[in-house]
Amino acid sequence: MTALVPLPVLLPLLGAALTLLLAKWPVPQRVVSVSCLATTLVVAVLLLVHAYRYGPAVVQIGAWPAPVGIVLVADQLAALMLVVSSAVTLCVLLYSIGQGQAETGESAPLAIFHPTYLVLTAGVTNAFLAGDLFNLFVSFEMLLAASFVLITLNGTRLRIRTGSTYVVVNVLASMIFLISVGLVYAATGTLNLAHLAARFDGLPEGVRLSLQLMLLLAFGIKAAVFPLSAWLPDSYPTAPAPVTAVFAGLLTKVGVYAIIRTQTLLFPGEQAGKLLMVVAGLTMLVGILGAVAQSDLKRLFSFTLVSHIGYMIFGVGLSTVAGLVGAIFYVVHHITIQTTLFLVAGLIEQRTGSTDLRRLGGLARVTPLLGVLFFVSAMNLAGIPPFSGFLGKLGLLQAGVAVGGVLPWTLVAVGTLTSLLTLYVASRVWNLAFWRTPCQTVEPTAPLPALTVGATVALVALGVSLTVVAGPLFDVTTGAAVDLRDRTPYIHAVLPDGPP
Questions:
Q1: What is the C-alpha separation between 323 and 343, in angstroms, rounded?
Q2: What is the mean pLDDT of the chain?
Q3: Number of domain units in the chain
Q4: Which of 70, 105, 137, 309 sits most deeply, having the most CB atoms within 10 A of its CB?
């Protein structure tokens, strides 16, 4: 089974090389891309089954033993993230193929899109599997390079301007991360996460706290937590719909994953938990208030994206098994639902030529299927029972109540208020875009391509299925949270003879 661990990284990279060679042949290029991501999804499921039954699978690249060489680790958390990310990237790829056929024919931008998209996927999977800080940094750089190409596809002035903002902010985050990596190595002499878990315990408290805050700052920018999230609502909405969808669903969650991994493995029980809870509350509140004020659907979804990142940070800040269970479950739920909502926004734009709520109306009568896709996803995001959004929020709020105290109870109240405001935002979009009298200024265009609709339906079904499989999914997230709190399974899997 360990031989499968590198495949979620190698398959997309191999696919990127092949699709680059096949740039003049769109159909074989699409077949290669879909085959690579479908195979990656199968491998990810096998790794999750192995991690759940037998513990983490570890590969020492080049047979260099840890902590010297590069290590890839597929524990329950990493494997679960691989499964969800692979499923989402596959659906978004199918959507983009359908959209490309409808809007641009056989010429562009698919020739550039496929290899870049596969490199982006490889960066995401490598981040989840990385067993050392430098490899994690390399993953972020792969993401940054690929995402700049994707966010500026077609090279319009607006996309280049917003893409430049995106790059500047993320380069700043990368610089902070790289400086942090250097300081960590200077203080401990290693970058291997399992080795660091042992070395950090011997550092002075002030040094440990400084390194923790620097890593949180770098990952906080990537995850778009308040007040480091101002760049996101301006950057994401201008990109093509499938690009925005995969960015919103996945890229911010890579930052959240890095926070979960480093906070639990390197800084267990540290005082930053209170700081994380304060940040989580502000992220939820400021994000959803921003969504309330928006009249464009993509910007509105961008603000809800920021807002719901706060729920995940809340679970991490609690520093309990129940809090981590809720946070991991909510990450899985939110990757699926937020991606789906942006794809629905793309379908609305294709159907009407606009995502401005002031110009939309009557879509429930014109395209009932589109109304169903939005309604189910929006109610799931708002946390209406029995959807997975409700189960995730309930788990987090119960974890906060169990901890008790002023700050957790405040976060419980803020989380409840945010959920109600999300429901208000979803109802407002429904009333303006789908329910009210059709706006005469917007004329329906050609029918939606079957492939884009099919990919969106598949993601909606995946979101609903999280409710159906909530029991087994909570078993996996509980196992992952217990392992994260214990730390021993991860450290022993990487360093079976103990830290040197």
A1: 30
A2: 90
A3: 1
A4: 309
